[in-house]
Write a structure and sequence with these properties.
The chain has three helices and no strands. By secondary structure, the protein is mainly α. The longest helix has 18 residues. The protein is elongated and about 70 Å long.
Length: about 80
């Protein structure tokens, strides 16, 4: 892979702490974790992997009959029906 080069990178404090914690859990070094992350990002961009939104659809038959689009009062009433609201 060549001769290692030193680089200074400024990271958000929370991100750095999370990365150090993850490296500790993985029993690896921060350097190895950063290198793995950079390789992964560069590989995915080189391959042109498009972002795919996970399918978060829910089962059902769509809009409830009788519910008018934009009728927030009716929607709220139906959502809280039987729940004390």
């Amino acid at each position: 892979m060549g001769t290692p080069m030193k680089a200074t990178v400024e990271l958000d404090d929370d991100l750095l702490l999370a990365a150090k914690d993850q490296a500790r859990r993985d029993k690896t070094t921060l350097r190895a974790l950063v290198e793995e992350g950079l390789r992964s990002v560069l590989r995915s961009r080189r391959e042109g992997s498009p972002f795919r939104l996970a399918d978060a659809s829910v089962p059902g038959e769509g809009v409830v009959p009788g519910l008018r689009e934009g009728d927030w009062a009716d929607l709220r009433a139906r959502a809280y029906r039987g729940r004390g609201g």
